[in-house]
Structure formats: C-alpha cells, structure tokens
Amino acid sequence: MAVCVAVIGKDNAPLYIGGIGIDTSTDNELSRQWLVHTALDALEERLVSSNTTTANTATNAARTDLRDLYLGLLYSTDTHKIYGYVTNTRIKLVLVTSSTSPSGSNIRDAEVRTALRRLHALYADAICNPFHLPGDQITSIKFDKQVKNLMLNNV
Amino acid sequence: MSHPDYTQETQHHACLLVLVRGIGGVLKNFNKLWERIQKINNIKVTDSNGQVRDIWVRYVRDYPVENNDWGDFQTHRRLLGLISISKFTNQVELNEVCRVHESLKVKYTNTLYDSRAFMFGPGSNLKKPEQEPETYSVGLDDDKVAKEKLTFSDKISLPSEQIDSLSSTDSFPRSSSSASYSLPEENFTTPSNFKTHAMFYGENDPVLDLEQHVADLINSLFWVVESKRLERSKEKLEKVSLLLAPFEKRDFVGLDMESRNNKKRCMGRVTKNLADLTLQAGLVGESLTLYHSSAEILKSVNDWLWLAAAKEGHCAASAILIYPNLRNSTPLQRNASLQENSPLKLKSLSLYQPSDPFRKFKPNSPLKVSSPVNPPSELTPSSSDSMETSSRQSESENADTESLSSDIEYQSQRSYLTPDLPSIPRQPHLQSQHLLSGEDIAERYRKAIIHYSKYQNAGIIETEACFKAARIAVEQNNSLIASGFLQNVMFINLMLSEQEKIQRFDTLAELYKEIGFLRKAAFCQRLAATRHVSANNPNPDWRRCYYLMLHSFPGHRLSLDPGYAVQHQVGWPVLQIQLLQEVVVAAKRMVHPALATRHMTFLLQAMWPHLGKHEQRDLAIQLQALSAQCEGGPVPLVLETGEVIPPANLTHVPHCSHFTPRPLPPPRMPHLIKSKPQQGPFIFTPIHFGSLERTKKDEGKMEYLWVEDDICEVQMKLTNPLPFELKVSNMRLLTSGVVFESIPETIILPPDSPTTVNLHGTPKEVGELQILGYSTHTLGVKSNCRLKNMPLPNKFPSSFSLDVIPKLPTITIETELISGIESCGSVTNLSLYNGESTECTIKITNTSSVPIEYLDISLQSNMDSQLQSKVFQWSNDDVQSQLPIKPNAVATIMMKLYGEADFLDLGGCDLFPNSLTSNYPSRVGSPVPHASLPTQSSNQQNSLSSGLINRTSGSFRSTNSQTTSWSAPLSVMPPSRGRQIETQILLRYAGGVGSEYCRQSTLQVNLELLPSVSITHWDVLPAEIPSQLYLVLDVTNLTSEELDLQYTDNKNILIEGKESCRVPVPLDRCPFNVTTKTNDDTIDTKSISTSCSNSLELMCSDHITNKVDLRWKLVQSNINGKASVKGITLSQAMMDIVRMSPLNWEVSINNQCIKPQEEYSCNAGECLSLGVCIGNHLSRPLHKLCLSVQFYQDYNNGVMNYKLDNSVATAGNNKIVLSTLEETAKAYHECTVVFLTPGEFKIDIQCSTTEPLTDDPNIKDMSIHQCAGEISHVWRFIPPVAISVTD
C-alpha cells in the first residue's frame, strides 16, 4: 500500500507531495518528506548510470527510446520501500510503500509499476490545465483527490 | 567485540596494527610527531629469501582491548606494536610515564610483540643517560654512541623478543629483555621494572631518528609476524586446534572435535588464519590462494562466519592488488632519492647486523641455504601463478626453507620510507586465477555480509565489512553498489553507545558524500546530530550537533547565503525550514546566541515565501526573543572551525515596495547657470538610435543632482507584513562612492498598510554617489538591505547613482513693503490702484557658509514682458554691487511696483457712442470741410465748464478701435476692472566652487490692480493760440471714494466716486521735428501710406502722452497715483489739430489780420478784401499746391449750405494753383468778396496738394492721401473765419 506519493520537478524541488495519514503516528508529513528527499540521491544516480550505459551503447538507439521509465526500488528502510519513476521530461515520481502494513509488505513490482504509470497519467492530466505553469507546485484539488484514491486503491 | 571501527578500510587487512599513545604531560609537538609516524606506513623488508616484502602499518591512537579478541578471527585486528610518546619533567613523572607504558604493555599483552618509548625530558642537551640498574650509559649526542646503543639493544632485546614471541604467545613482559636505559640526566633514572626500548630527547629536539626507530619497530614486528606465519604454515593440519571467534566459545562446548566435519572446520579456519598472516607479511599473491582454499573448505562444512571472513579476506587481497591507490591515500612527500632497492645499499645502511642470539635461535639451519636456492622469484606473485594448485604443504615447505635461509640471509633491511608503489613485484598477480575482478569483489563482499548477518554477534564485523565494501565500491566509482552497502549498515541492529551510533552516521554521511549522495549524507548527518542531543544520550553535545546540522546544509540544497537561497529557490522548503529550526535550537543550546539569531534571521529571510502567515509571525516573535540575547548584525560570523556564516539581511520585514531618491526641493535644486542650447530642431523625437544599450547602461542613474552638504532625501514605501506593530529603528541609507552622512530614522509600521518613509542624508564630498540600499534594525536584527538582493516582485536597479555637485549657498528671503506689510514667506500679496506706485524691499540673507557670488533676478508672470518691466522695476546695478554676499550677510533689493494700466477705456466704445461714430468716419481722411467744428468747440467749452458729460451731445467722439493696432492689447488691461497679476520673482544665485550651477528661489508676488480712473472719451480742440490745443478727456472715477484729479500744474478737479467728468488739458501742439523714428525705414512704398499715417499718429500720440500729466489722489485713503493717456488714438482730423500745420496761415480781411476766435462783421454789399498768405514751414519745397477759398453758411444744426450764389460775389480767383512753394517761402493771394445778403457766413480756406510726398520719407510732415491720385492732402485754416453780415 502506498503511503506517500511525490512529484518532483526537474530541479529536484517538490511539486507535489501527498500522503495518507492512515499510517502510524511517526509517519507524519515531515518524515515522508525526508524519505522522498533522501530517495532522490539514488534516483539521480540511477538516471546518471542509465544514461551513461545508454551512451556507451549508443549504437542501440532503439533501446534509448524504449528506456523504461520505471526505475524500480530505489531503497528501502525498516518500514518503507521507495520506488522511483522518471518521465521523459525528468519529472520524478516517487511512491513510498509501507512494509509494516500487511498489504504493503508483499507488494509486487508490477503493481507498483502500474501505480506509477497511472500516477504519470494523472500528472499529465494535471499539467494539461492551461492555467498551470510548468514548474509550479501542483495545487489541483482534483489531482490530489485522484492521487489519494490511487494510493488507497492500490492495495 | 563491541567497538566498531568505522574507519577501517579494506587494505587494513594487510596492515600491522600499531598503537601510538601519548603519555604524561601534553607534548606540544605531539601532533607533528604523530604525523611523522603516520608517514612511515610502509617499509620494505628483504626476507630470508632475499625477496623484498612490502609491509604496511596502520597506526591507531586508541584501540579497545576487546577488539584484540577477534585477533584469531582476523589477524589484522591484533595490536602488534606500541609506541609511546611521553613527556616528563622530573623523576616522579618519569616514573609515572614508565609505569603507564608498562601497564599498556600488560593491557595488550596477548598480542603485543614489541614496543618503543620516546621520552621527552626537560632541557635540550641531554648528555648522560644513566641506567640505574646496570650503570650503563650511552651518550646520545654521538651518532656512534647511539649506534652502539642501538646495536646493544638489538643484541639484547630484539632477538630475545623474537625468541619469546616465536616460542610462546605469552611472551610479555619479556623477562629476558634488557632495555637500554639512556637517561637524559644523571638525576633521572628509570624504574627497574621498566623494560622497554626507550629513547630520550629534549623537549625541543628535532628527533631526527624518529623514523628510523619506528622503522626498527616495524621491522621487528614483521619478523614476528613472519615467524608466526611460518609456524602456522608448518603445523600439521590434522592436529591444529580450532580457532574461535570470541562469541563462539560456548557453541563448541561438548562437541565432538574429532569428527570429520570439525577437522575440516579446523583446517579451514587455520588456513584462513594463515592467509591472514600471509597477507600481513606482504605475500599478497599467496594469500589469495590461501583464502580461496580456505573458503572452499569452510564452505563445505557450512561454517558461515569463517567463510564470510575468508571471502572478505579474499576481497581484501584482491582489492589491494587491483587498487593499489587505496594504500597510498596519504600523499607521500619523501624524496624519491631516498628509495633504495638495491640490497647492497640497504645493507650498508642497515643498523642491524646478524646477531648471535638470532643465530642461536636457528642453530641448525644450514648455512648454505641462501637466496639462490630459493630465488625471490618463487615467492613473488609470479611464482604463485605456477603454484596455482599449491597446497598448504608446499606452501609451508616453501616457507620453511625460507625461514631456514633467513639466518644467513638475515638482513633486516631497514628500507624505511618507501615512497614508491611497490608495484613491480605485484603486477604478475593480476593474472592470478584467484584474483577477483571488481564486480567479483562486490559480489563476494555481498555474500560475506549476508553470511555475517546470520550471526547476531558478528554485527560489528558485518558493519565494518559493509563500510569496507562501500569504500571499495567508491573506489570502483559504483555509487549504487556503495549506497547498497551503506544502506545495509542501517539494518544492522547493534547495541551501541550513542557515541558509536553517531560515529556510524557520521561515517555513513562521509561515504554518501563521497559517492555524491548529498541528500543521504545530509540525512545521516542530521540523524547523527539528533543523536548527539537525544534523550538517551547521557551527555548531550550541542556543539557537535550544531556543526553536523550545519554541514548537512549542502545536502538540503541550502546555502548559508540568503541571497543565493532566495535566488535559486530549489530544494525542499519543508525540510529546509525544519532543519533551520533545528539549527537555531542547536545554536541556542550551545550558547551561541549570535549564531541562533543569525540562523533565525536566515530562516525568516530565505524561507519567507514558503512560510505561512502564522509561521511568519511565530518565527518573527522567536527571532525577537533570540535577538534580545544577542543582536544580529550584518557582519559575517566566523565559527571556531573557520567557517564563515554570511550575514542574513531581512528584506522581507519590512517589505519595501518602492525606493527612489528624490530630487532636492525646488528652492534648493541646482540649475545650470547657462542652460544648454537646444540640440536640434526637434524637441521630441521618438527615434532614439541605440536607445536600447543606453537605457541598460544608465539604469538607476538619476538625472537630477544632489548638492554637497545639503540634506537629500530618498523616498521608500514600506509595508509591515507581520500582524503586529513593527518598530524599525535606525534606518539609514547604504551608499558607496562619496562620503555620505545618513541620518537615522525610526518608524513604527502598522500591520499591512504601506507607509511612505523618507530617509535623509548629507553627501559630504563631490562626485558620484551610489545608493545601494538601506539598513534597518528591526526585530532586534540589523540588516543591510541592498537593492540588488531585494526579493523578486520588485525589480530595483542594483544601485541608484547620483552626481553630487559642490556646495551651493542657500538663502532666505524676506520681503517688506513700504506700507509696512511684511512677509517672510515666498508669497507676497499686494494691491495697487492703477497708476499707484509703491516699493518693495527684498532682503536676502545668506544662510549657508558659502558666499553668494552670483545673483540674477528675473520675472515670470502672466503679463507680457513689456508690461512686466513697467510694473516691476529694479536696479540691476544695485544688485550686482552688493555681491558677494558673505555668509550670514544680508543684501537688500529695492523693487518698485507700479500699477501700470491703460487708462483709456476702449471697451466703452462699443456701448454708447455708436450714434456718434456715424459722423466720425465721414471726417477721416475726407477732404470735405466740416462746418460743425466751430460750434462744437464752443459747446464743448460749455460742457467742460459745467463739469458734466453731456452724452447726447455730438461734441465729443471717441476714437475707434479700428486704428489702434499698436496700442496695448485690450484683454490685458481693461482699466475698469480689477486685475490679478501673479508674478514669480526668480532669484538665481550661486557661489563657491560649483560655479556651474546655481540655485533658484522664487518669490511669489500676487499683485492686485484696482481700477482708479479711466478715460472714456477724448477729443482735441484747437486752443485760442495756434500753437496750442485742448485735449478734452472724459475721466471716470472708478473708485468709490472721492478723487482729486490734477490735470495741469494748477488745476484740479474733484470727482465723486463712480462719477465722471470732462477736463480740458491744454497742450502744445505737436511740432514737426519731433522725430520718433519708429518703423518707417524699412517699409516699402506700397504700404508706406498707412505706415506713414500710423507713424505720424504714433508720434502725435506719444507727444500727447508725454505732455499730459494726470495725477489723482484718493482724498479719503490718501493714496495718490498717476494716469496716462498712453495709447490714445487720433483720427486724421484730430491729428491735424494736434499737429502744427506745415503751412503758416496769415489771413487778413481788409489788410487786417484775423485772430482766432475773432468774429468779423461787415455790412451787406461791403467789399472785403481777403488776403491769404501761406508760408512753408517745411524744410523742402511743396509742389502743385492748390489754394482755395470757399464760403458757406453753417446752420448750426449740422447742415451747411455751400450754395451761396445769390448771396456772395467774389472778385478774383477763389482758387489758385501754386506750382512750387519753396521752403520758408511765402505765397500771397488776395481776392475780393462782397456779401449780398446779411447773414452768418464762414470762409473755408484750404490748401490742397496733389503731389505725393513720398520721395523723402525722412520728412513725415504730411500724410498723403492718394484719393484717386488727385488730392493727397488738405490743410485748412482753422478755425474758419466767420463773418457776420448785417444790413
């Protein structure tokens, strides 16, 4: 079960952080932010390494195109697992699952992948708003609601 | 083992562990010595086979004894050597130092092989060390003696140590060792139980042989390790005892040791142990093989712990070979010339000599066995290639022979300080089968760590392994793997003290930093920081906490510079705010209020946009509380670590939305004395070539000037964003360039309402002044708010620059009127009757310290300049003569004010005289004789005498405005109404150095002109004498008072208020030669006629104006003034009266001259002889004159009868033509007339000319009217001769 979802901009500033408060008391907003923030390192590193590998295998151009946006598990702590996803415009989507809750402990990779894809679609919808300035924080209530829904449904 | 060593690295597996400890008093150069010792981390020893071994050493300052217990498990954990560096000043201290050293030896007795003591006593020249027990002394000053001493000690102690250590593990204290006691002074003696190789120095000695001694120690340690290795390798595999990790001791109680499994376990473990020793002894290649085989064995018996250790060892050995750089992390700065690889040279340098005791140790060793037998090549890694499958047996045999050979070849090479990489013998290893590749190392490490994790008690080993693996991954540049290992550290649950936990986080942070995971590093640092002050920590350390927090800033994308933070708004505001708040708390708790204030200021400033209203308020209040302890200032704070915390300036509190320097107020504004000439015909053009660049460059450049020593002003608009009243004190301007003295300002800002604030200051120098911003002191924090750092929505130029010009004087102006009205202000109000004059005194006081050297007065008003100069009159010379005006001196300017007005009421002509004008134009320019004139005059006389205006009488006529093109404009001066004149007197003054500029003061004078008298109508009448005329004026008193009008020298008349009366003013006629050359000269012939007439009229008008002197006096208020008839207009007929005739008439009847106003009477039928004589008064001849005499009857009702055929008979010509009349010549004509019937007759005598008189424009005596080219002008004899004929 996802406990937190974050959308992070190109410059690694947060665009949106949404969490659901059904977790334990320690899992407040701040700690969620720490979790996502520290995950950025691994995420970036992965991006760099994937870039270099694709650069090395420049001959395989098709592979670059088909690069999976889903980065997989970034890291895990005692209580959480953090998954990453990067869009082609370098918007980072991070999903945090709780490994303490029964449903989150044995979540499958594919589930996370679908969840992140859906999140990507939601994000794309949100920034389609002509009044949204790219790079601004996402304040859409609808987006928030949908994301919360996604987190809950993705049990 | 309970004390993790986070600094461990992979290559330490191959190092000998040596403890360096300072004992006794604090030695001031201890750190220097420690550094020197640390540099000796690698020495080369030639072993018994002549093979050069690389021995690496790891020095530690502290080592927990418990860790020694793991020495069997991993031999590099054993503490092998001890170096004590101690200081003593007297015998007691020396004893203590010796005791501590010995106790240290006891402490590590299980593993310690050798020790050295460096003792630093008082004084610098320690000559006579004394050995108490044996009275043995060796001088230290002599190299030779020292050498002897060393030799001695070698002989005595070193071999015995080796014997001990080789023979038994419990060799300490070495009973047989006899330490060399070299005492600094005779007084000092070491205690008898002190049995250590001690060196004595003066405290300030350079200790040149330190490296040598340390190398000695290492050399001796090597040999012990080497012997251990040999011993281990010779052991019978079947009989080896089980090596145990400390926590395993209980596990194996009661187990069958003889089982095959256990045998194998023993074997594996021993092999692993041997591999460790081999690695430490410098035989890396061989250790690889051993590790491999031990891993194989251990794997088969599922001995996971030791298998992990073997794998780790394998990784370590491989890493050492693959990444030689790991070992050389400390830069080596020794001169390469010192490296000596040649054995001969080494030998010559060697202080060690084959010693007898050592030989005794191996008495049976064959002497012939030498290096050729076991060539070094066999032991080099290349040999290991050939011995891929070398069994332990062969290895041990090999080692055996090695050891056998050692006693002959024993040349303990003190190859100290080898700067070069011992790479040559190592290269072949790379082909070793068991050498692991980079990926393999990581893989093996992972497996090892997994195995370790199966044992809870091996947590520390696992942790250390993780760190080592991470470091290798860092070396491999594989950040993800490194982060994986580091992440694993977090999962290891260890019972650690808070301090160790902090260290763990610290090390994690460091490694994360190394792989560029700054956020992780920051996270760890913050965790470490919180640990420092957690509730579980018995002694919280806020200082460390603070520094850790501070150092985690980069990871949070926080810069200490608020400007940067604001501009590059990146990172996670929520986290940053949290962190900053924690830092503030930490700073506060470590009792550094200045820092706390600074960070709080920073928080408020940099995070302002991300803070809610509530947070802003709370933080502001907190800041106020903090700054109460220590005020924040705009200066960088330097921490103990040398870090600099840049100042944080509050630009959001208060928020500045507007900032502009103001020009000086108008009276003090400098102007150019000489205004620049216009740059071209265009005042405005929308085309600016290159305007883009110019506007960019001149941004913030002000067009106006400021003046030195003069108060200048900057206007700002401030808003207090906080919900409470904000006191901002000490607001000043920040400037650069010329010296500027800013006047502090204190304001109290109400919440959320923009307030305009003016900041003042005085430039003290001439030049360019840049205004960079302003400083505030609010919430207890002083801030320098620079414009360039202002928060974004307001775009200010980075600075405003202004030119400051030299001092200019200032003045105050007082005006004083004669009437006593005084006004200091710039506005003077004054009322004058038309024609009244008064004086105004302007007092100028120089209030500055600069003399006024230039003063210029000019006027600006709503009048035209001509009128203006008449109303205001002053003497410029008088003004200039008072210059310069010294400081505090006063200059006075007298200004005359005159109520200039046009007293002719031209406006009146539209109203009533219309009926009269009908006959007026008929007269203009008309040659037709006017019979009415004489009676008019008589009537006028009557009416004048009555003093009343008979408006219905046709006796007066008003001039028409049609011909008044040159008179004053009607709109300006209507005499009958009061007028308001607003005038500004401009005083431009300057002085001092800046003579290019002046200041300008204006004095407003509001002048009210009240109507006094007006002349509504006028006419001219011929006087009794031909040389005079009467100007008849209808004067109206427009005031409400009685007015006394004096119109000649001795005649005056009283006029009631609002009444008018008619006055005759006798005047001389206008002479010919009044030359008022005005405007004829340039006029061409076409327009000459009108211009001539105009100029003539003007001349006459001027004549009248000058001659008429009307003075009035208000009887009641005692105000007097003048009136003038300036601008009076005259018709042609009037002009003829006004002007002297060019012809002199002499008319006689019966040879009797006719006087004016005289009536002649005769009888009907009487013959009268009429003589007319004309004389030319002009300066030139007249041509084609026609003199005519005509009789008529005037019925006095406007009808004139010229048809007198029946009543008059004339004899002689009544019309003659004179072709020429010379100047001053006279012509005479006579005719005879007979009146046939009685009656009143009049004779119209006139002279006309048809000649245009335009040839000579200089003589403007005549107006030429070219009526159909016939008659150009007519002169009449006036008044016409009247004859009454009686019967």
From TrEMBL, chain A:
Q: Name one Pfam family in it.
A: Sedlin_N
Main localisation: cytoplasm
Compartment(s) of residence: Cytoplasm, Perinuclear region; Endoplasmic reticulum; Golgi apparatus, cis-Golgi network; Golgi apparatus
SMART domains from the entry?
Sybindin (SM01399)
Q: Does the keyword Transport apply?
A: yes
Q: Which UniProt keywords apply?
A: Endoplasmic reticulum, ER-Golgi transport, Golgi apparatus, Transport
Could you name the Gene Ontology cellular component terms for this entry? endoplasmic reticulum; Golgi apparatus; perinuclear region of cytoplasm; TRAPP complex
Example GO biological process: endoplasmic reticulum to Golgi vesicle-mediated transport
Q: Which InterPro entries match?
A: Longin-like_dom_sf, Sedlin, TRAPPC, TRAPPC2L
Q: Which family does it belong to?
A: Belongs to the TRAPP small subunits family. Sedlin subfamily.
Task: Indicate the quaternary assembly.
Answer: Part of the multisubunit transport protein particle (TRAPP) complex.
Q: What is the protein name stated in its UniProt record?
A: Trafficking protein particle complex subunit
Q: Origin organism of this chain? A: Pieris brassicae
From TrEMBL, chain B:
For this entry, the protein name equals Protein brunelleschi
Q: What family does this chain come from, according to its entry? A: Belongs to the NIBP family.
Q: What residue stretches are annotated with the Trs120/TRAPPC9 first Ig-like domain? A: 675-776
The UniProt entry's GO CC annotations, sorted and at most eight, read:
trans-Golgi network
Biased segments, Low complexity type: 165-182, 382-393, 932-950
Q: Name one Pfam family in it.
A: Ig_TRAPPC9-Trs120_4th
Trs120/TRAPPC9 N-terminal domain boundaries: 72-331
Highest taxon in the source lineage? Eukaryota
Q: Where is this region: Disordered?
A: 164-186, 361-408, 923-975
Q: Where's the Trs120/TRAPPC9 third Ig-like domain?
A: 1028-1138
Q: Locate the compositionally biased regions of type Polar residues.
A: 367-381, 951-968
Query: Where does the Trs120/TRAPPC9 fourth Ig-like domain start and stop, copy by copy?
Result: 1144-1285
